[in-house]
Amino acid sequence: MYRFHKLDKMTSTRCAVCKYFRRRCPPDCIFAPYFLNDNPQRFICVHRFYGASNIGKMLEEMPVQLRADAVDSLYYEAKCRIQDPVYGCVGIITSLHRQIQIAQSQLAKAQAEISFLDANFVGFEPTPSLSESLVQQNGFEQGLDDPFSTWFY
Amino acid sequence: MASSSNSPCAACKFLRRKCQPECVFAPYFPPDQPQKFANVHKVFGASNVTKLLNELHPHQREDAVNSLAYEADMRLRDPVYGCVGVISLLQHQLRQLQMDLTYAKSELSKYQNHNLSGSTAQGFIVAAAAAATATHHQTVGNNLISCCGGGVSRDHLYHHHPQLFSSRDQHASVIRAFDVNNNYDTTAGVLAMNISAGGIGHPQFQTPRAGGNDDLPTTIDPS
Q: Contact, A124 vs B112, CB < 8 A?
């Protein structure tokens, strides 16, 4: 009876990773804070693409206070890859790039119209410095490159 | 694309093994790009990549490898956020642009609603639109971010726009938006766009998106 109680205690305190690998979960288990045993799917998802050993190495190489975010982002990317096995979250990035290009194009066109109307529409007072304010706002920061134009080898 | 029969592919060279004729990595990791495989292996591991490729059709594998290479590169540059950091930055950028666009459209509507004779107002609006179209490309070149090949590194952004990187909440919101709705939640309408493989931003892709259907679903059911 004591033996079963001891096993129950060990089982109930194991993290999802140690439970998956059917091993004892040490007190200093690097995975335990981020893969709770009430959510086994989270680890299964991340393990599928990265592997437990790679995840462990990544976590060891970063400060403790950043590990939760790192695991969350790995989980997010893994879920994206499950939903889109070919492109993963890179599909989202490409889609956003495209959206940005379209919005920029529309904005530039609107700016050009406003500039024309400012210059030619006598008798109507637009918002002061509208053209200037938009141009200033649109001194765009250089953005991240589209993944497939620069990062691809 | 395939390595020659004499030289091993970058993967087999890295793993120090004989490159078999049917090597699954050989078409996608040529020997002259060793860093590509090194990065992918470091983040994902060769065996995980093999499993992933074996689950895909052969015509999808090149795109899959390239996207994995990109993700690995981003993860090595930003070990905490990886591609999620990129996504949150782009979302921020897009939101700013949409706000600017809304503001510009509201200003334009003031001209349209101004109390002039109908023909005068109409004439101005038509002329403005024509002028805008004529100068559109020049304005685009002068004012727009170069999304393709801007050549600015992430380090530049770190240095010049620290506020974009200081917000863990921003990155966390990307992840929460995904989890809460169980689907992608970038901005409204993003996923309704058609992405053509041969269009802007996909010069490296050989094939259309999976299934040959360029229409992205508005929501994605993970089940």
A: no
Measured CA to CA in angstroms, residue B85 lies from A34, B4, B57, B78, B90 at distances of 19, 38, 30, 8, 9
Rg (CA), chain B: 23
Report the distance separating Cα A38 and Cα A17, nearest Å.
11
Is this structure's pTM higher than 0.80?
no
Distance from CA of B21 to the nearest CA of A (A): 23
CB–CB of B157 and A73 under 8 A?
A: no
User: Average pLDDT per run of 10 along chain A, which is 153 residues long?
Assistant: 49 85 94 94 96 95 96 97 96 97 96 89 57 53 52 46
DSSP B104-125: HHHHHHHHHHS---HHHHHHHH
Q: Which residues of A touch B136 (CB under 8 A)?
A: 105, 108-109, 112
Alpha carbon A106 to chain centroid distance? 27
